[in-house]
Amino acid sequence: MSRTEFIAITAIILFVAFVLGWFAHWLVHRFARVSQSEMGELDKLAQSLHEAEEQRDQAVAYFQQREAEMTNQLAQTEAELRAAMDGLRDARQEAEELRAYIERVSQE
């Protein structure tokens, strides 16, 4: 194979590769083309997605606020329970002391 034949064959191969690449590019753009109505629909979907994300963020913030309020309320309720239990314990102890005093007085 002479040098001229080699150059011609290489040029033909490169040209065929170029034509195949161009044809593939044309096919991809032909099938992937987006019309104006589809763009409008995509814009509506994007807007709906944006609104849904905002609503989700608002819901997350609301539930975090409610969780903080409920945690605070639980802590207050537990503190009140401890205070009530302490008061009940003191009342029982005082009642036992009074019973013991009454028994001592009645035995005399």
Helices and strands, with pairings:
Blueprint: H1 3-31, H2 36-107
Give your account of this protein's structure:
The chain is mostly helical and 108 residues long. The protein folds into two domains: 1-36; 52-108. It has two helices and no strands. It has helices at 3-31, 36-107. It starts with a helix and ends with a helix.
Distance between termini?
139 Å
Question: How would you classify the helix and strand content by structural class?
Answer: mainly alpha
* Structural Rg: 43 Å
Helix content: over 70%
Spans of at least 5 consecutive residues with low confidence: none
What is the tally of beta strands? 0
- Indicate the overall shape: rod-shaped
The main sheet comes to: none
How many domains?
2
Could you tell me the strand content as a percent range? under 5%
Task: Name the helix and strand elements from N-terminus to C-terminus, one letter apiece.
Answer: HH
pLDDT averaged over residues: 93
Distinct helical segment count: 2
Which descriptors would you attach to this protein?
single chain, 108 residues, mainly alpha, rod-shaped
Can I get a quick summary?
With 108 residues, the protein is mainly alpha-helical.
